[in-house]
């Protein structure tokens, strides 16, 4: 988030604006100056862009606040030139909940459209003015109203993982297993994404970006959902490692490199007086070698605050928590005692085994 400007927080949701947004503004200014557009008109155009993106933020808040109703937090909302992005802690698995969270965004735009249309009905408008693409004080509301309608309709296209695609997945998931529903919605999303890219190549470069974004997003989410489906029903104890490499906290890093080269392990348990006190990863070892050489004490690079999970915890839940907290390894605890470790490689292998055994 370093390259984003913090705008503020509302209802515990932080709002950022991505630096590339300034490129969009710059592009509007430069292309208009080259076309000899009067400065006043450029200012109106910029005002329209800010107004439009304010509506995009409201759209994202539609998702975030609907998710909050189901106890799901939103880490932040980031405004990009191609639209907004609300990072929800997770997507609700209950189809009805996903449906409401997905539809809440476009509904906000419909709401804005209705309000602006009422204002227009009272103040009078001329639809033909939309065609000359001349944004100024008298057409601003008309443009914002149309833009909100377009935003709502565009987002409701069934291009998973866009809102309409999520609505589609939710409907499919009422009758089908979630992984299968996601596969179908994902394929439709990717087909539409390809159409966006082709159409965008000749008409609108932003559509190309959106198409690529959708294509990759669909692939990632289909992959993620099918992996999660293999973890369903299992507990942490089913995948955890009881055999692991240990290192003394006061040994030099050279001991760690020895074990690293001598085994397949990528995570080590650091012990002090026979008690497991922390974890050391391959990356931390390499980092330590770079900074302090092989005589550096292991405790200097050890993570003494390891992520902890319980043996009886659901494996899927543990996997998701480790990913959202960006932890690659966790201490597995039973009745308050350290029992073993679980790392990402472990889980990946578990998924590979289960998927090989399934006939799907
Ligand atoms: Zn949305």
From TrEMBL:
Transmembrane segments: 12-30, 42-61, 99-120, 140-160, 205-222
Keyword list, A-Z: CBS domain, Cell membrane, Hydrolase, Membrane, Metal-binding, Metalloprotease, Protease, Repeat, Transmembrane, Transmembrane helix, Zinc
Major location category of this protein: membrane
Membrane topology annotation: Multi-pass membrane protein
GO cellular component, one term: plasma membrane
InterPro entries: CBS_dom (IPR000644), CBS_dom_sf (IPR046342), Peptidase_M50 (IPR008915), UCP006404_Pept_M50_CBS (IPR016483)
Binding locations of Zn(2+): 59, 63, 163
Cofactor(s) required, per the database record: Zn(2+)
An example Gene Ontology molecular-function term: metallopeptidase activity
Residues forming the catalytic site: 60
GO biological process, one term: proteolysis
A Pfam match: CBS
Entries under CDD domains matching the protein: CBS_pair_SF, S2P-M50_SpoIVFB_CBS
Places the protein is found: Cell membrane
Residue ranges annotated for the CBS domain, each copy included: 301-351
Cofactor: record remark: Binds 1 zinc ion per subunit.
Domain Peptidase M50: 48-195
Family: Belongs to the peptidase M50B family.
PANTHER family: MEMBRANE-ASSOCIATED ZINC METALLOPROTEASE M50B (PTHR39188), STAGE IV SPORULATION PROTEIN FB (PTHR39188:SF3)
Official protein name in the record: Zinc metalloprotease
Originating organism: Belliella pelovolcani
